[in-house]
Structure formats: C-alpha cells, structure tokens
Amino acid sequence: MSVNGWLQIALFFAVIAAVTAPLGRYMTRVFTGQSTWLDPVLRPIERLIYRLTGVNAAREMRWTEYAGALLLFSLVTLLGTYLQLRLQHLLPLNPQGLPPVPADLALNTAVSFTTNTNWQAYAGESTMSYLTQMAGLAYHNFVSAAVGISIALALIRGIAAREAATIGNFWADLVRCLLWVMLPFCVAGALFLVSQGVVQNVRPYDVVTPVDPATARQVIAQGPVASQEFIKEWGTNGGGFFNANSAHPFENPTPLTNFVELVAIFAIPAGLTFTLGDLTRSRRHGWAVWAAMATLFLAGVSTTYWAEARGNPTLASVGVDQQVSASQSGGNMEGKECRFGIANTALFATVTTDASCGGVSGMHDSFTPLGGLVPLVNIMLGEVVFGGVGAGLYGMLLFVILTVFMAGLMVGRTPEYLGKKLDAFDVKMAMLAVLVVPLVVLVFSAISVLVPAGLGSLANQGPHGLSEILYAYTSGAGNNGSAFAGLSANTRWYNLTLALSMLVGRFFVIVPVLAIAGNMAGKRWTPPSPATFPVTTPLFAGLLVSVVVIVGALTFFPALSLGPIVEHLLMYQGEVF
C-alpha cells in the first residue's frame, strides 16, 4: 500500500460526498414536478411521449397496478431483445456479418439486460452486431436502470404518504427518469469519453499487418463504444462493448476516464439517499442511511486494497520482490492494468460490486483469496452499499425495516419507521425479498458442484473452483453481472440456470418491495414519542450496518468458508501451520 493509493481512494470518496446533495436535490425536483433548467427542452418531449402512447401521467396507481405495468413492460422488452438477438444476421448495421446468437445464449442475454444484470457469457466484439449493441443492449442499459429508480421512488412515496391508496404512476416515473436523469448526463459523459480516446463509430473492424510478415494479421475491433460506456456506469449496468470490459483501452483508456467512470457508478445511488431524506421530510435520516453505506464501502475497499497490496506469498517464497518502489507498483498485479495499478483496481472492484454494476477494470479471478472475497461478499450483502440505481436504496430500505423491527423488539413496543407503525406484512415482505436471493444462489451452486454440466466449465479445481461457481450465481441473482473469469459460462446449463436466477433475483425482490410501498402508503402517520427508536442517529447507522453484515454472514458464511477462506489458508499454509 502507498500514500498515493490511499489519496486516490480518499479523493473518490470526497467527490461522492460532494455530489450527493446537489444530485439528490435535483432528482427531488424532477420527481416532484418542480422546475429544472432542462424543462424548456424536455417538457415538450415528455408531453409528446404521453400523447403518442396514450398515458395519463396524472393518474396514480395502486401498488398492484404499478407492479403489473412494470412486469408487462419488462416481459415485452425481454421478448423484443431475444428476437433481435436471434435475427441479428438479417438486420442492418452488421458490417462483420455476425451470425444469429444461439437460442440459449440469446435468452440468457435478453434476461440479463432486462434485469439490469448485464451478465455477459460472450465476447461482445465477436458476437453482437452494432445494431444489437445500440438498439438492444444499450437500450436496456437506459430502461432497466430507470425501472430501478422508479421502484425506489415508489417505495419512498409509500413511506412518505399519509393514508394514501396509490404510490405514483410507473409510466410517468419511467419517462421522467429517462429524460431528466439518464439522457442529459449520458450525452455529456459520452462526449467526454470520446474526447479522452474512447471509440465511437460504425466502421467495419480494421485489419492490420504486423511488422513481422510471418505473424498473422490482427483485427482491431471498434464500434459505438462511448455511447454504451457511460450509461453502462451511470445506470450501474456493467455490460461492456468488449469482452475485457472497462479493462479494454477503447472503453477506459486513461486514469482520468477510470476516475470519471467510478464516480458515475456511485453518483445516482448516493444522490438517492438525499432524495429519500427530502421526500420523507427527514434529511438526517437520509444522511444516516448514507453513512451506513459509506461505512461498509470504506471497510470493503480497505480490505481489498490491503489484500492485493500484500502480494502473493507463493511468489514471495521464491524470492520475487513485491514491494512498492519507484520502479514497480508492488503487490499482486496479476489480472490488473498497469495504467490503473492496485489501488484503482481494488477501488473499481469494490465500487462495481457495492453497486449492481458489474463493469470491471481487472479480473476478479486473479485477485488474492481475500481480495476476491470482498467483491463476492458485497453482492451477497444485497448490493446495498450505495448499490445499483434505485435497487441499492430499496434494498437498503428493506434492511432499515428489519433494523427498526429488531429495535422495537428490544424495547418491547410496536416498531415505528418515520411515523408509520410496522406490521407483520411489512416484515414478512422484507424477509421474503432478503432471503430469496440466498436461496437461489445456494441451491444452484450446490447442484452445479455435483453435476458434470456444472463442473465441466471450471478452469480451476478445489476451493477456487467453488468460488467461481458461487460468484457466478451470486452475481446473477444479485443482478450484478461481474464474474470470476475462470468459469466458462456459455453452456446450456449455465445460460439457463443463470437466466432463471437473474429473473428471480430481480422480480422476486421488486414485487415484495412494491407490496411494502402500498401497505406503508395506506397507514396513518403518528408523531414520534419518547419511546420511538430514532432513525437519524449514529446509533441507528451502526445498528443498520450490523444487521446487514449479520444477515449476510449467517446466510453465506458456510459457503464462503469452503471457498475463498479455505483458499486463503491453503495459500498461507506454510505460515499458518
């Protein structure tokens, strides 16, 4: 570890803290219908969209109607993407003449991008046409992110409402999110990336002849990269144009673009905590939730940086110098880009798995066991450490409900959250949403380590192989999309089981969240009493962190102890035993 590395991490954290309030305040204005500086341009477009689609934006929906509209929208877009993937060889903007995507891979990919997972069991530059990348995958980068934010807003409205029967209008939330929150920032971000060297064109791939004529000619893949890259980060999607994702120099060429992409991943999730405080009329509560997220983030990035900076003891045992010096970065540089180094790679791995992004600037499979443990645990905790756009906030609010419920049990009275009494329905829905992902992960992982179809894709045996399988299903059910690259997941078994895990991890969480929103909206507000557990204090933030960690530890610790933890002990067996 170095002072320079810690300063880079501190600078990133300071920027996130600085943008939280301005961006959160802006989103409050957007979703409460207040004026913004973009209104003269975007209001007419919004009205035109409603007129063309027949949407009455002023009509409020009950939670069941809101959920039905969301599920129907997701189903239609999923089927449309699947058909596009299967027919891409017949569609324009395919200068490489790429064939149709195989059926099981097309289903996996359509589910992946619909659920904001963006798991990629393929190499983008050799599988997807330009039209597919732009009109299929990048389209989902926008709308799946907007869906997540809409759900978070619906839950916040339910918490803030007083004896209401409705939680908003899904179509209006979706349109306003796309027009005001997604498009303007992504246009500016894409133009910035182009200025820094990120590729943006629709030319056929270039073929170059190396200096040595005996060497085979090299194909230089390119395409509409910048337009997909920024929304990949801003919407916490993670699906890269290239197989190497943000480690590819055409996606992420410099330390400056790397820093901007990192900030883009956390910006909206951090801002939404301020929006939570605004809309519930308790900014201190919003900051308490932010503080809990920040605590978990700092613990994760510190552990990852420490583990990777220590290096690999196997190399140290044969005399390899892994110390930081003027001539080398030191530590474990396997699978990392030299232009980013260990600190930035550890930061990217932590941020992308804290959020449901999945973009990577290094190979998590090459991290040390403890370094790879942190990204895995981040997803297992529900990606509530700022988390995905919208998904992180509503995931953390589930833990807030459980925390308030436990605090109520400790003092022997009915738990209250921001003036609303929590009942059995709220707690049951929260537990259902929290437990469904571990159920899917552990069941599919257990089956995959027993059947030939699961074991046949492993590049490694032993505990690291278990970690690869466990990470895949955790990433899928957690709607993250990153992977331990040692698992060759483009098989019928993994394409189908991961598709199912992604669907369950997305929609079996969303529906209970909306049910809680509807139930909370109809409740009467009561003023706090001296016995009410305050949700605006450091004590609350600390208890919230404890609940998140304990639930994750109790659920996944047995599996982790057989994977990365035992691998760590084996790596240090000469020192441990």
What does this entry look like structurally?
The chain has 577 residues and is mainly alpha-helical. The chain has a domain at 391-576. It has 21 helices and four strands. It has helices at 3-31, 39-53, 63-86, 103-114, 124-127, 130-160, 170-195, 226-234, 255-279, 283-310, 313-316, 341-354, 369-380, 391-411, 424-448, 452-455, 462-477, 492-521, 538-562, 564-571, 573-576; strands at 206-208, 218-220, 416-417, 420-421. The strands form two sheets. The protein has a two-stranded antiparallel ribbon with strand order 1-2. The protein has a two-stranded antiparallel sheet with strand order 3-4. β3 (416-417) and β4 form a beta hairpin. α1 (3-31) crosses α9, α9 (255-279) packs parallel to α12 (341-354) and α10 runs antiparallel to α13 (369-380). The chain is globular. The two termini are 26 Å apart. The mean pLDDT is 91.
Please give the structural blueprint.
Layout: H1 3-31, H2 39-53, H3 63-86, H4 103-114, H5 124-127, H6 130-160, H7 170-195, E1 206-208, E2 218-220, H8 226-234, H9 255-279, H10 283-310, H11 313-316, H12 341-354, H13 369-380, H14 391-411, E3 416-417, E4 420-421, H15 424-448, H16 452-455, H17 462-477, H18 492-521, H19 538-562, H20 564-571, H21 573-576
Antiparallel strand pairs: 1-2, 3-4
Entry keywords:
21 helices; 577 residues; mainly alpha; two-stranded antiparallel sheet; two-stranded antiparallel ribbon; 63% helix
What characterizes the major β-sheet? 2 strands, antiparallel
Count of individual helical segments = 21
Beta-strand segment tally: 4
| Beginning-to-end CA distance, first to last residue | 26 Å
Strand content: under 5%
Strand order across the largest sheet: 1-2
